[in-house]
Amino acid sequence: MVIRVHMTCDKCRSKAMGLVASIYGVERVEIQGDDRDRLAVVGDGVDAANLTACLRKKVGNADLLTVEAVVPEKKPAPASETTEAPWYPGYYSWPAGAYSHCYPYTYTM
């Protein structure tokens, strides 16, 4: 979501970013725009109207510009997957020799 907030100085920007970052569910906050007056907020389960009202109360005039869902990028599947031998507790595992009689499996290399 993008919120336009009336921020005139760096102290106001810092206060607005700290307020937004403290909200539960917010993952990332960025300052955008030519006048550095827009906050881009990314998060899960964030109430946009409540966040805007809170910014109005604490910082100044705030307008909700856009709200949209962010779709995660799909990662390509790896070309070849390697398989490793399963690990079994035995003689070669810790503790080395003192408790080897406790483990019924033996790992041969």
From TrEMBL:
Protein name (Swiss-Prot/TrEMBL): HMA domain-containing protein
Gene Ontology molecular function: metal ion binding
Organism: Aegilops tauschii subsp. strangulata (Goatgrass)
InterPro entries: HIPP47/16, HMA_dom
HMA domain residues: 1-67
